[in-house]
Amino acid sequence: MSKQRTKRVIGNWKMHGRLAANVALLNEVVQGAGPVPAGTAIGVCVPFPYLAQVQQQLDGSRVAWGAQDVSAHEQGAYTGEVAAAMVAEFGARYAIVGHSERRAYHGERSEVVAQKALRALSAGLTPVVCVGETLDEREAGATERVVGAQLDAVLDAMTAEQVASIVVAYEPVWAIGTGKSATAGQAQQVHAFLRARLAAKGAPDVSLLYGGSVKPDNAVELFAQPDIDGGLIGGAALKAEDFLAICRAAN
Ligand code: 13P
User: Using alpha carbons only, what angle is made at residue 33 by residues 30 and 36, rounded to the nearest 5 degrees?
Assistant: First the structure.
C-alpha cells in the first residue's frame, strides 16, 4: 500500500487562545519545527479573530494556518458568519468543516458540511472534512454506516478532481477530549474503509488524518498505520512541546 502520501499534522485550537499566549505558543512551534521531517506538513487552525495574528507570525515559516469553520454561503445577510473568501484573504491554507462539535452543538448536517467544503475549495482553501461516530453508534455496529454517510454527502457534491484536493479527518466522537484514543487497529480499520470509499470516487491519495486524544505517547503507533496520514490534534496542540512531538511522529 502506498505510503507516499504527504504526512500532515494539524492543530485545532478550538475556542482557546489569547493574543499574548498565542505569540508564545506560535514562536515555540516555529522555532521547534526544525527537527520535524521536511515531508511533514504542519498547520494550526485558530479562532477567526486570530487569523491576522497567525498570518503575521507564521508567514514565511513552514507552519500553515487555517480556520475551524466557514459559512455555507458565499456572502450576504448572514449575521455572525464568516465567508471562506474572508479566511483566504488572511493567507489561510485550511478550513476545518463538519467537526463533530459543530454537528452536535450547531446542528450541522452533512449536506451543509458539503456546501461548506465546496465554499472552502472555491476560495482556494483546503477543507479538512471531519467524520466520526458516537459511542452509541459504535456499540450498535453502525460506525461504517455513519462515517460512510457523512463522507458520501461530501463526495456526492464534488467531482473527483475536487475530492483529490480535500483532507479527511476521522474523529470518533468518543475519543475527542476524553483521553481515550481509538486503538491504532480501530482507527486503521475505519481509515481503510474511508480510503476504499475515496478510491471508488477516483481519489485514493486523499490525506486521511486521525483525531481524538492524539498525544506524544500514542502518535507513533497511530501514524504507522498504512492508511493514517497524520493527525488532527486538539488539546495537545495547545502545548508546543507535545504538538511538536506529535509532528515528529508523523514520518
Ligand atoms: P483532542 O485531541 O483534544 O481529543 O481533540 C481532537 C479534536 O477534536 C481535533 O479536532
Answer: 160
Which DSSP symbol is given to 211? E
Instruction: Quickly count helices (H) and strands (E) in the chain.
Output: 11, 8
Backbone angles phi, psi at 200, to 5 degrees: -65, -25
Confirm whether pTM is higher than 0.90: yes
Tell me if 242 CB under 6 Å of ligand 1: no
* Superfamily of the domain at 8-249: Aldolase class I (3.20.20.70)
pLDDT in tens, 52-105: 999 999 999 999 999 999 999 999 999 999 999 999 999 999 999 999 999 999
- The reply to whether ligand 1 has any atom less than 6 angstroms from the CB of 66 is no
**Which of 8, 9, 13, 14 to probe ligand 1 with, by most ligand atoms within 8 A of CB?**
14
Torsion angles phi and psi, residue 232, rounded to 5: -110, 115
Please identify which residue in the block is written with the cell numbers 474511508. Answer: 194
Domain extents in the chain: 8-249
- 143, 156, 180, 182 from 190: Cα distances, Å: 8, 20, 17, 10
Question: C-alpha grid cell for residue 72?
Answer: 455555507
What is the spatial distance between Cα 214 and Cα 234, in angstroms, rounded to a whole number? 8
Task: Read off the amino acid at residue 48.
Answer: F
Location of C-alpha cell 504526512: 7
Grid cell locating 215? 498525544
